[in-house]
Please model this.
Amino acid sequence: MTSSYMTELQPPQKVLLGPGPSTVHPRVLAAMATPVMGHLDPAFFQVMDDVCEMLRQVYHTNNKMTVPISSTGTGAMETACANVIERGDGVLIARNGYFGIRLGDIAERCGATVHLMDTPWGKPVDPNMLRDELKKHPGLKAVGVVHAETSTGVISEVKELVDVIHEAGALAIVDAVTSLGGHDVRMDDWGIDVCYSATQKCLGAPPGLAPISLSEAAMDVVVKRESKVQSFYFNLKDLESYWNQTRAYHHTSPINMTYALRESLRMMMEEGLENRIQRHAKVAAGLRAGVEALGLKLLAEDGARLNPLTTMSVPDGIEDAKVRRTLLNEYDIEIGGGLGEFAGKAWRVGLMGESARERNVFALLSALETILSKEGYEVAFGASLSAAQRAIATFDKD
Ligand SMILES: Cc1ncc(COP(=O)(O)O)c(C=O)c1O
Model:
C-alpha cells in the first residue's frame, strides 16, 4: 500500500466563504512562490518597508510601529496584551462574542486583573454602558474591544468606544481581525492605541501574519514598562528594532508570507480602499437580502451588521453540520458553523477579500435553496437569488 504522502499535494479548489481563510488571488500565490531571501538581506528590508508603508495606509495611521507579527491573529492578541499589561494592571474587556472572551482570557494569562463587561450575543458594545462600567473601575490601564465580532457578525462603533475609554484615561486595544480591509478602520482619527488584525480575512493573503499598530502613547507605555515582557517572541521593543531600526536579528521572518502580504496589499492599493470597502458592503447587502428571502433569520442586530461576515439562524429541523458538509462535498463551498453560544444554531458566511464577489453570493444562495429543499425545508425557488440581485442592482442608488 502506498502512503498518501507519496502523492504530490493537490489541494481541491474550494470557494472559501467561511470566517477565514478567504480565497487567495493567484497573484498573491505567485508572489509566495518566488525565491526565498535571507531575513537580513537588504533586498528583504525593502520588502519589509513596502509592507509597513501599505499597512499604515490601510490602518489610516502614521504610527511608526505598524508591523506584521509572525503569527495568526491570536498571536497579535497575545502581543497586544503581553506588551501593554504588567502583572496586577487593571483591564476591562468588553465582550460581545467568542473573540472578546478569548481576549479576556489572554489578558488574564498576562497577569491583569480583568473586569468583564458582557453584551448579549448579536448586539454591539454600547458606549454608554461602557462609560457606566468604567466609572466602577477607576484607574484601568487598558480596555479591550472587538471591532468586528466574527462569532456573531456584529460591528461595534469603535470611535465612540475609544472616546469613552480615553475619558477614563485607559488605552484602547481594538481587535480588527475581521474588519481591516473590509470596513473602515481609522486608527489615528479614532484615536485607537493598539490595533491588530490578521492576513487571512479581508486582507486577502493566507493565514500566517498578523499586522499590529501602536500609537506613540502606547509604545511609550511598552518602552517604560517596569517588568520584562514575559514573551520573547512577541516582545515589541525587539520587533521594533528589527522592523524599524537596527534590523537586528530577532527571529527568522516568514519571508514568503511577507511577499504574499506585500502583493495582497498592492492589490488593495490598486483597487482603492474606499472601493474595496464598498465592494464588501455591496455583496453583503446581496447576501443579507437573499438569506432573508430564504426565510433565515439574521442574527446580528439591524444597524450593526458586519459586511465581511454574516450570521444566520439554522432553520428548525435542519441539521447544521449536514448542510455544511453537503455544501463542501457537493458544491465545493465552505461556510462556517456557530461558535460558543451559537454552536449548532448558526451559519457564518464570510465574504472577505477575494471571496467578496457577487458570483459567490449567487453560488451559495442557489446551493442553499437546493440543499434545504431536499432536507424538507420549504423553498420558493429563485426567491433568494432575485432578492440578492435586486439588492445588488439597487445598491449604488441607495
Ligand atoms: C475577531 C477575531 N479575533 C481574533 C481571531 C483569531 O485569529 P486567528 O484564528 O488568526 O488566530 C479571529 C479569528 O477568526 C477573529 O475573528
